[in-house]
Amino acid sequence: MKDLKISYDNESGKRINVEYDTIMDFTDVMESDEVDIPMMDYENVEADFFENPLNHKHFDTIEDLYNHCKMIGENMNKVKVIITTLDEFGEEIEEIIKECDTKEEAECFVLEHEQDFADNSEIYSVYIEE
């Protein structure tokens, strides 16, 4: 499975199709010294993420796609503090309440708000997800 499939128009108007195993592979290539990579100003960019038609996006330029992928990568590295509550049917509902840069930062957040969590009878659990 390819995480990213793109097509774009190069400087001569030719339609180019490229696949990347991961989104980070694309950003790594764009940041590399390789010669045969898409130019940032190539236009009419179509991208399919995770081979899912619901994740098809259009970008004006390769640079727009690159910035979007960088944002995805930055969010993937966040440590999340998640609370679990129960709905009226007893089903668990998870909600991300804080995204942190490190596990230590997340642990400090939980400790700082431990009493708040304990006082809220709707909260079923609090956990950290890396």
Overall description:
The chain is an alpha+beta fold and 130 residues long. It folds into 2 domains: 73 residues; 51 residues, no CATH class. Helix content is 30%, strand content 38%. It contains 4 helices and 7 strands. The longest helix has 15 residues.
What are the defining features of this structure?
4 helices, 130 residues, 2 domains, three-stranded antiparallel β-sheet, four-stranded antiparallel β-sheet
Could you give a quick summary of the protein structure above?
With 130 residues, this protein is α+β, with helices and mostly antiparallel strands. The chain folds into 2 domains: 73 residues; 51 residues, no CATH class.
Layout of helices and strands:
Layout (H helix, E strand, L loop, with lengths): L3 E6 L5 E6 L2 H8 L12 E7 L6 E6 H15 L2 E8 L5 E9 L2 H10 L1 H6 L3 E7 L1
Antiparallel strand pairs: 1-2, 1-3, 3-4, 5-6, 5-7
Give the strand content.
35-45%
Arrangement of strands in the largest sheet: 2-1-3-4
Largest sheet: 4 strands, antiparallel
Distance from N terminus to C terminus (CA atoms, Å) equals 24 Å
The gross shape turns out to be elongated
SSE run: EEHEEHEEHHE
Give the quaternary arrangement of the chains: single chain
Give the uncertain stretches in residue-range form. Answer: none
| DSSP summary: helix tally | 4
**Number of structurally distinct domains:** 2
- What's the mean pLDDT score? 86
Structural class: alpha+beta
Helix content: 25-40%
What's the number of extended β-strand segments? 7
